[in-house]
Amino acid sequence: MTKAEQAVVATIRRMMNDPRVAYLIGPGSGTFDKLIDAYAEINGKTVKQAEAEIEPLLKYEPWPCND
Asked: What pTM was computed for the model?
C-alpha cells in the first residue's frame, strides 16, 4: 500500500474512532467525498459501495466550544 493509500485509510479509521473528527469531515464535506472516492479506488469498489460500508460506522459529536 502506498503512503497516500495509508493516509486515506488512517484518516477514515480516525473518523470511525473519533466522533469529533467525523463531525468535522464527515458526509456532506468535500473532504469526505474525496476520501470516499480514494477509498473506493484503493479497494476496487464503487463510491456507493464505499459509502455504504463506511457511513454506518460513523458517529458524530461536535467539538466542545471554549467560549
From this structure: 0.87
